[in-house]
Each structure stands twice: as structure tokens, then as C-alpha cells.
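Annex B, item 7. Sequence and C-alpha cells for protein A, then protein B.
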Amino acid sequence: MAGSLRFLSPLLGWRFVAATKPLYSSGQPQRGHRLTPSDDEAYQKTTIHRLERESQDMMFIEGYTAWGFTISGNRVIGPCAVLPRAILQWNVGSHRDITAESLSLFRLLEPRIEIVVLGTGDKVERLDPAVLKLMRQCGIAVEIQDTPNACATFNFLTSERRVAAAALIPPPGSVQHGNAAVG
């Protein structure tokens, strides 16, 4: 009887089971699946798709450096405002310069912007709560992120056909980042 008692898996809770014959007739476990690819699998190709803008009229942030951005094939030097159909220079030097006046452009646009993604450089910075409250009162959500994440968020929102804008400050000291970093 002692030779016929076996342990079941710990997953089932250590129980003894009486076994009258061996678990495997050949002594070794048998595999029910093949370990090598079949002929048709060996010649299949892997494809990779880059994240690209879906239409020509959609803004897409392709990359950024410490000096500026590449947006829909256009190089922009310094801080910029990315609107649904335009790119503008944004007259701020750092996150300290972001005021109700510097964000007034986003409140004046038609159709109304749903969300403004603010890229504050290489890290997330706090803004004046009164400025954020004013934007909320105008019906515009504000998302504050570091610039690399703000670029990716803007691309995602526009790919989902949201009416979004971005206000971006280049991250100081960054090397060139292309699609892999922002998409």
C-alpha cells in the first residue's frame, strides 16, 4: 500500500491518492503538441506597423528635442500651441509663464476645444489653481504632464477624433526622440 500512495499537485492541496497502476504506461510523460513549427508557419513573415496619423488634416507630433518639435512634418522651434488645424509659436519661457492670458487662445477657438494637454518640460509642474479653475469654467479640461507624455497623450486624443489642443514646452537637455517616444 505504501508504494501505491502518491501526492497530487500542491494546487489541489496535499492529498494522498491510492493508485493501483502507474500514472504513465511508458514511464515518461507524452507531449500532446508539437514543439517545432509546421512548414507553413516557418515561412510566415512578421509585420510591424508604425503609429501614423490617420488623415492629412490631423495634427500628429512626430518627435521632440530640447529645441522644439516635429509636428506633421513641420519643424517648430521653441514652445508651441498645437491646434486641430494649426501650429502656433507659444510665447512662454517656462511653466512659470503659463497664465490665464497665455491660455486665452484656447478659450477663443471654435469649435470649442474639449481638452488642452500642457507639456511643462521634463517634469510635471504645478500651475496656478486660479488659471486651471478659469479653464474649467470655460468648459475646457486641462491635463498637465511632462512634455514626452503630453505629446503621446495629444496623439492618442487626436487619433480618437477628440477636439484636443496641446501647449508644449520643449524638455531641456533631451536628445532627439521620434515616433517611438511619442506614439
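Protein B:
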Amino acid sequence: MGAYKYVEELWKKKQSDVLRFLLRVRCWEYRQLPGIIRLTGPSRPDKARMLGYKAKQGFVIYRVRVRRGGRKKPVSKGIVYGKPVRQGITQLKPTRNLKSVAEERAGRKLGGLRVLNSYWVNQDSTYKYFEIILVDPHHTAIRKDARINWIVNPVHKHRELRGLTSTGKKYRGLRHKGHATNKLRPSRRATWKRNNSLSLKRYR
């Protein structure tokens, strides 16, 4: 086994004494720092490399902090003027996951870079911390690299805002296949529009 494999096995046992101590100390440090901060390199090099990171020019790592918890319904005094089925206030969850929110915040802050992928690094009672892998589409090293220069194409601008990253495809339900996912492809909205549009062909 190579060094990365050992690091990977270490991260699989997050309840071990080593990882618990390491995560606790790092979490304290993260709390003192800004919500979005650039790093010199990934905290989990094995995970970053799995998701496409290379230690070369044009690749950047940012750590993003996101507040944990569900999505409480924003209504005045907890009053929902509607049917009883819609009365819920507190136990509601957002459609998107926190990792996707972290990617969005990084993408909005760094508009000139492209979001490649992201991974979990830490969490406490209040926050979750994710590291985002970003790519500079204008850098010569990226434009010349045949493995990554697909991201230079303008069609990949702000892919994190359109649910095209890995975590975006997850919350859209695209990890699943088969007859149960008919209404998810190409998207829920496209399926709804197709089913609710009256199409009268000219020659019928």
C-alpha cells in the first residue's frame, strides 16, 4: 500500500483516538478563522486527489464554513395561512445539502474560478466545514492539460449553481437509476413542464 492508502484507511476510522483528537484541535482552529479562506494545500490529500485535485498550478483549495441545521419556515409568528398539511414550521429540511451550499458560496465569492468538487473535513455542533477544489480556467497549465481542460469550456461556468457537480447530482436524485426515477430526468422541472404542456402537432 502507498502512503495515500494509509491516510485513506486512517480517515475511515473517524472514531479512533488519533482522528478524534486531530479533528477536535483542527475544529477549534477553524472556528477562529474566516468563513471562506484559501489554503496552501488540501487537509485530506488522498481525498482531494480522488476528486480530481493535482498539486500543480491552476488548482486552488478553499475551506468553507456552513451553519448546520434544517430549514425553518420563514413565516411571521409561526402562522401559516393555508391548509393544515402545510402548517409545519420546524422539522423541515432543505432540498439541497450543506455541501452544495458550501460549493455555491465558494463559487459566488470566486467568480473567475470553476468549482471542480468538494469534500467534508470537519464539523461541530454549529458548523460543517468543507474544502472546495477550484480550477483557474485561464491558467496556461490548465488549458494545456488534456485531462482537465474540459472545464475551460464556457458551458461549465458556475456549474455548482446549476447542480452539475457531484453533490449537485446527488440532491437532484441522479445517483439512482431505473423506473422509479422517471420524473427526475433530465430534471424535475423539465418533466413537470413536459407533462403539463399541451402539444398539438400540426399534422396529426
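Comment on protein B: Strands lie at 36-39, 59-67, 114-123, 127-135.
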